[in-house]
């Protein structure tokens, strides 16, 4: 059994304890699962705003004259075309096309990038990068120990950002910041990188800053956000929010046995990457992913709308029908009651012949076949 006393503590650990958070071990960190109730925190993000500690995520700096060329080789995306202060969702894959991790990459300068990895894969991504640097003039640096990451998510996020004492937009306008872009700000005169790349389906901002500054910014957000309905929110609400938004979670929808195409994310694989002479650029996994993109899928990731009251959960079998002897046609990857929609939702890999929206299936929920219907993802889109 794992010793939770060995978990890394967030720079905000004392803040979570003071707020009475229920803490849990997650990917080697002690993190807040909830502060009040899962539903209350979820609903606050949908209607007002939630404050999240994401300091467990991995921050990796990639710098040097060949930084862009290295990322084009190491990742499946075309990172050399990323604009300054732009952000891009991408993946790092193995030679066989299996997903090692899904990532967000930010470009600070022409030769400086910030790669954000999932907490559970932080060491794996660092090791893979180290293996792939041969022949490139590039430096890979683990910035996670000195970096904190705080997110404000919800329809009141911009108002809260502007009301936060000590936070300055430093000549930039947060309101005009595009989705999947970043901008420099300052907090108490110290640099903060602010991104608009949320994981909840709502508008919001993520704040990368020095770990020692994080408690002060967290407290400032709580004070500024109180009139707007801001509440601290834990991992449980973050998971139900991303599920409603149809966003994949590594270890559920993505893993080493899954290619980007399996997850419906083949668009992130850029086979049209070319060098200055127009020749195709090699990248790790290219041959396998090119072949996978031209083949018929063995399984398809779909949304499942629960027609009953009992929620499907990760690992539950998907059945062809509610009949007792119905054959298995897939497996649930994520599932939970949807606080926003008022009924259970799930994502699942199923065989192609039962993947069309409107198809009625069932999920084996502890021996009982609960009816579900295939629906298009995401389950929830925020009002524009």
Please provide a written account of the structure.
The protein has 384 residues and is an alpha+beta fold. Helix content is 19%, strand content 32%. It has helices at 13-18, 38-47, 67-74, 122-132, 157-163, 214-225, 235-244, 286-293; strands spanning 8-9, 22-26, 29-34, 49-53, 58-63, 87-93, 99-109, 112-117, 139-142, 147-153, 167-168, 182-187, 190-195, 204-210, 230-232, 300-306, 317-319, 328-337, 344-350, 360-365, 368-375. The strands form four sheets. Strands 11-12-13-14-10-4-15 form a seven-stranded mixed β-sheet, with helices on both faces. Strand 6 and strand 7 form a beta hairpin. The N and C termini lie far apart (47 Å). The model has no long low-confidence stretch (mean pLDDT 96).
From the structure above, extract its key features.
single chain, 384 residues, alpha+beta, 7-stranded mixed beta sheet, 6-stranded antiparallel β-barrel, 8 helices, 21 strands
Question: What count of helical segments does DSSP give?
Answer: 8
User: Taking all residues together, what is the mean pLDDT?
Assistant: 96
Give the biggest sheet.
7 strands, mixed
- Cα radius of gyration in angstroms: 21 Å
What is the structural class? alpha+beta
Count of beta strands: 21
Helical content band: 10-25%
Strand order of the largest sheet: 11-12-13-14-10-4-15
Q: Measure the end-to-end span.
A: 47 Å
Measured by DSSP, the beta-strand proportion falls in 25-35%
The helix-strand sequence is EHEEHEEHEEEHEEHEEEEHEHHEEEEEE
Q: Uncertain segments of ≥5 residues (pLDDT<50)? A: none
Shape, principal axes of CA atoms: globular
């Amino acid at each position: 059994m794992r010793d939770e006393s060995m978990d890394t503590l967030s720079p905000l650990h004392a803040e979570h304890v003071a707020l009475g958070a229920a803490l849990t071990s997650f990917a080697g960190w002690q993190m807040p699962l909830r502060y009040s109730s899962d539903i209350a925190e979820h609903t606050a993000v949908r209607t007002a705003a939630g404050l999240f500690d994401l300091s467990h995520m991995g921050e990796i700096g990639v710098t040097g004259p060949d930084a862009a060329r290295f990322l084009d080789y190491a990742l499946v995306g075309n990172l050399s075309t990323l604009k300054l202060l732009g952000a891009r969702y991408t993946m790092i894959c193995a030679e066989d096309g299996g997903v090692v991790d899904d990532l967000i990459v930010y470009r600070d300068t022409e030769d400086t990038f910030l790669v954000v990895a999932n907490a559970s894969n932080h060491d794996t991504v660092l090791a893979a990068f180290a293996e792939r640097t041969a022949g490139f003039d590039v430096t890979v640096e683990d910035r996670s120990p000195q970096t904190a990451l705080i997110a404000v998510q919800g329809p009141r996020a911009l108002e809260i950002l502007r009301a936060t004492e000590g936070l300055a937009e430093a000549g930039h306008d947060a309101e005009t910041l595009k989705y999947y872009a970043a901008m420099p700000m300052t907090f108490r005169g110290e640099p903060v990188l602010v991104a608009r790349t949320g994981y909840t389906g709502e508008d919001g901002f993520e704040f990368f800053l020095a770990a020692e500054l994080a408690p002060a910014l967290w407290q400032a957000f709580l004070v500024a956000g109180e009139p707007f309905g801001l509440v601290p929110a834990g991992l449980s609400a973050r998971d139900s929010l991303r599920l409603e938004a149809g966003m994949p979670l590594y270890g559920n929808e993505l893993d080493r046995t899954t290619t980007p195409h399996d997850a419906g994310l083949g668009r992130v694989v850029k086979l049209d990457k070319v060098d200055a002479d127009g020749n195709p650029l090699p990248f790790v996994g290219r041959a396998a992913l090119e072949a996978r993109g031209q083949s018929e899928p063995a399984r398809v990731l779909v949304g499942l709308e629960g027609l009953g009251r009992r929620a499907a959960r990760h690992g539950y079998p998907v059945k062809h029908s509610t009949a007792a002897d119905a054959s298995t046609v897939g497996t649930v990857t994520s599932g939970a009651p949807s606080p926003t929609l008022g009924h259970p939702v799930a994502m699942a890999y199923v065989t192609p012949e039962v993947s069309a929206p409107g198809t009625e299936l069932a999920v084996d929920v502890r021996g009982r076949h609960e009816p579900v219907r295939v629906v298009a993802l995401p389950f929830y889109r925020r009002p524009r």
